[in-house]
Design goal:
With 119 residues, the chain is mainly β. It has strands at 3-7, 10-12, 18-25, 32-39, 46-51, 57-59, 67-72, 77-82, 91-99, 109-110, 114-118. The strands form two sheets. Strands 2, 4, 5, 6, 9, 10 and 11 form a seven-stranded mixed sheet that branches. It has a four-stranded antiparallel sheet with strand order 1-3-8-7, with no helix packed on it. It is globular, with a radius of gyration of 13 Å.
Length: 119
């Protein structure tokens, strides 16, 4: 059974930075990857970053150049470094693990989310 636990959210001023962490426990299925999603109030959940095998990454245009996804295998933790934050980045952020065929790795497991507020 896989569990994902996010941490690191908080409040920050525009232009600031935060680093989110997603601690992974359990054994994922082969062919799964890891990703980050976010959901702003009144909006749907959107994929923003994916971390695939061999360290390949992908980003949605809204965060490209500002956010960086990485993984520490020794700590079994996925990170999302968020720089140059904007008010429109305000959302609940979720870690996801799912089939690698999905660009941001949805379709498997979700964390409980961590709130990021930029104002």
């Amino acid at each position: 059974h896989v569990q994902l636990v996010e941490s690191g959210g908080g409040s920050v001023q525009p232009g600031g930075s935060l680093r989110l962490s997603c601690t992974i426990s359990g054994t994922p299925s082969p062919g799964y990857c890891l990703g980050w999603f976010r959901q702003a109030p009144g909006q749907g959940r959107e994929g923003i970053a994916g971390f695939h095998s061999l360290g390949r990454t992908r980003y949605t245009d809204a965060v490209k150049g500002r956010f960086t996804v990485s993984k520490d295998n020794a700590k079994n933790t996925l990170y999302l470094q968020m720089d140059m934050l904007k008010p429109e980045d305000t959302a609940m952020y979720y870690c996801a693990m799912g089939p690698t065929i999905n660009p941001y790795c949805s379709g498997g497991y979700w964390g409980q989310g961590t709130q990021v507020t930029v104002s």
